[in-house]
Amino acid sequence: xxxxxxxxxxxxRERKLNFKTAEENNETVIxxxxxxxxxxxxxxxxxxxxxxxxxxxxxxxxxSVEKPEGDLEWARKNDGYTPLQQHILFWDRDGDGMxxxxxxxxxxxxxxFNIVFSILATFIINVNFSYPTRLAYSWFPDPYxxxxxxxxxxxxHGSDSGTYDPEGRFxxxxxxxxFSKWDKDGDGALTLRELFQLMHGHRCAADPFGWSxxxxxWGTTWLLIQKDSKVYKEDxxxxxxxxxxxxxxxxxxxxxxxxxxxxxxxxxxxGGTKIF
Length: 276
Fold this sequence. Notes:
The protein has 276 residues and is mainly alpha-helical. It has 2 domains: 1-42, no CATH class; 48-252, no CATH class. The chain is built from 11 helices and 4 strands; from the N terminus they run ααααβααβαβααβαα. The strands form 2 sheets. Strands 1-2 form a two-stranded antiparallel ribbon. A two-stranded antiparallel sheet has the order 3-4. Helix 8 (192-201) packs antiparallel against helix 9. The longest helix has 23 residues, at 2-24. The two termini are 33 Å apart.
């Protein structure tokens, strides 16, 4: 891991030095001199050396430079589901394609969140995302506030990272851009400050629902997986494809529990280290 971080940091510094040369040589220009923001938020370059067609959205796996084919075992196990569907499979434990409010609650409890936060998460998720996914079947709201797995792409909202496309596929270029733009020291992780800058940078105008949803999603991610006050790249990739949720659940069934996250203990957002 230290070698990867060092390599990423060196490549990050080298890219910054080579932008002017690229423009002078008529190569792809990613900085516009009359748009200051383009020089502050740098795109991930040369991904084709590590990922085939990085701009093409994947319908089966969440991939990165470090895992150009994604988690192969996970992708094979969930063949036929998009990465966005894989992301929420953890909460569809009975495999009926529907996530009831109690499914959401039980899932958050198994991840270690306390009762209050789990109830809040259930309210936010099922109240806000049930009807959009229901529209694939009916104009009438679902009386049970179920979230439908097949049509989860309809719950995609504004002001997000764009890593999932409108159909729920995973776009490697946009995932790598999260770190190229916001990981200022190139260490392969995002601090809480950088996550807030990320949310601010992706906000769309007049989109209070999207702003709130992004805050809830990134905030929950921070509470669940931060380590040394940072969200690491591979952990975040595994959140996108949902495989990390199962690993957390398994870890919490062991004597050592899940060693990451914030607020361990009965009074924090995260409950104890074991399922209770």
